[in-house]
Design brief:
Length: 322
Amino acid sequence: MTATTLPGRPADDVARRPTEPARRSPGPPHRPRPWTPYLFLAPFLLIFGTFVLVPAVSGLWMSLHNWDFFLPDRPFVGLQNYVDLFTPDALVAQQFWESMRATGLFVVLSVPLLMAIPLGLALLLNQRFRGRTFFRAVFFAPYVLGVSVIGLLWQYLLNGNTGLINGYLAELGVTEAVPWLTATPWVWVSLVGVTVWWTMGFNSVVYLAGLQNVDDALYDAAKVDGANRWQQFVHVTIPQLRPVILFVLTMTVLASANMFGQSYLLTAGNPSNETRTAIMFIAEVGLEQFRMGLAAAMSYLLALLLIVVSALNFLFLRQKES
């Protein structure tokens, strides 16, 4: 039999066509290039190196020098800036540790409230009721405001002479104006209250996310065993939220220890530098007195103390978990 030819194609070409494609021999297995992971990490490494690593190294180098903008050169002094901070007779040491005391007092007063109030708020907002999405947004809304807006708003409310709060108190029969921003202990009540109102929404959202990940079967089992609401909270909710609590505690301590804007805008460090925090004093020494080397040494000492506190938080909660 002769091969049937296709229109416009010679019979020899049809006969020579392969009936199936040729099989290629398998090549060597594909190996990823060793620099591929670093290529994906390059954008982050560039940002981290530019805005974190380089400033950190530069600040450490500055802390080892008498880095004064008014000096023609910046002589190397080694650890003298750090020694000055531990010299009792030095004025800068006294002022620095007074500011550290103010920072510690603010942390002690604000952190327990910023741990407990948002947790209770998250427990309420985790319940099913009409309009809970609206209330979640309302409680979180202050957190999106900038610190300058918060300062101006509460200056208007807490001013001792023309503030709205003292005006309302006068209508209620309080004859003496409360010095919210000029006298202790009212300055601490104002700073802590404003900070809690401003930032509790963020902690509440973090707690709420953790609560939604708790398995309902655990609560059902606790109810079967006869546990009441408080026992369910202590033996189910808290253990399940332990990683979230650690995160919130660490972030809240770090944020409170770095408090600057509220004190700067509301009290300006008054009365008698009682509310001048460590960050305020560091900024004053570095940016107003131009002693950048000493300010850098203060910054690294504060950072070291915060690292120690954060490490203790991790160790304490890990021991409780074990």
